[in-house]
Amino acid sequence: MYDSPVISPEHKNAARDIIARLPKVDLHHHLEGTDGVDPAELQTPDALTSAVTRAVVALAEDNVVYVELRLSPEFYTAGGLTLREVVDCAVSGIEAARAQAPTMDARLILTAMRGTGLLADVAELTVATHGDVVVGFDVAGPEEEQDPLTGYAEAFASLRKNYVPVTVHAGLHGGIDAVADAVQDGATRLSHATHMVDDFSVDIEGIVPGRVSAWVRDRHIVVESAPLLEVELGAADELGDHPLPLFQQLGFTCAVTTGNAAAGTMTDQFLALADTFGYGLEEFFEVTVAAVNNAFISQEERQRLLETVILPAYEELADPEAGLVGDPDEEDES
Ligand SMILES: [Zn+2]
């Protein structure tokens, strides 16, 4: 499939400017969390369309090469737009962004909010618009106020029948039961899921995932980790206590995402992980590949992204002459 770039131990810790230049993949980024975005001011087609474009262009400036921008249609109907018109505006915004930032592949995920009673409508809208731009469905909102997702079995069944991929915000404020609900409803990715640690126990072998979290790990259900945001939201006292490294050690499939841009860009996330956990190019490559491989697009599109964008950039940035990566042969001699 591909060879991982060779990164020598002495150059494992990437410099800040290299991290900024790495091609990044963001599977979890809300329009509503983007700098300067206030849904109350985006109630006209032009305002909404251009906000979507600006959000994508801003991500491209951070060298994000693929994003699944999330948008909650129900936030933009106060000015008279229908849910469907909101999605049409967002699609236009994505198309305009593609023209302005040709190195960026941007898609949309439609997010239904818990507790507003519109989950089934947004699911239906996602089924109706699923295609090149709208690639998936999401549920967000306060888990403690959730309508139990089980009340929406029909909506989730319809998404499955129509082959629409699903991710769910679960296990940030809510516990392992919220994660269980999400996977039972067909989520193949989980936003946050930090509280899966509550499902872990310790025996003489070490830390052992429980029934639900083992299922998540063993089926490669992706944890869309947003470390800076999750610390801000109280999932850990400080980044050093964040469960991402533990999840990775236990074999979970983890992507690093922003969640909400106000908590930090992808570059900020990578820098913080480098500073706190010593992450370097190898770790960034690993989470980037995990993200690409679980993007809500076809295998051919993922492969193209990896082979024509991600790998060449890592190879270039990991060039021995750039002083970041040793030649594998030389490495053997040292
Ligand atoms: Zn989110």
| Overall pLDDT confidence | 91
CATH homologous superfamily assignment: Metal-dependent hydrolases
Which molecules are bound besides the chains? zinc ion
- Structural class computed from helices and strand pairing: alpha/beta
The second-level CATH architecture is Alpha-Beta Barrel
Name of the CATH first level: Alpha Beta
State the end-to-end distance: 29 Å
Counting structural domains, the number is 1
CATH topology: TIM Barrel
Name the overall outline: globular
| Biggest sheet descriptor | 8 strands, parallel
Cofactor: Zn(2+)
Enzyme class: hydrolase
Family: Belongs to the metallo-dependent hydrolases superfamily. Adenosine and AMP deaminases family.
Pfam families: A_deaminase
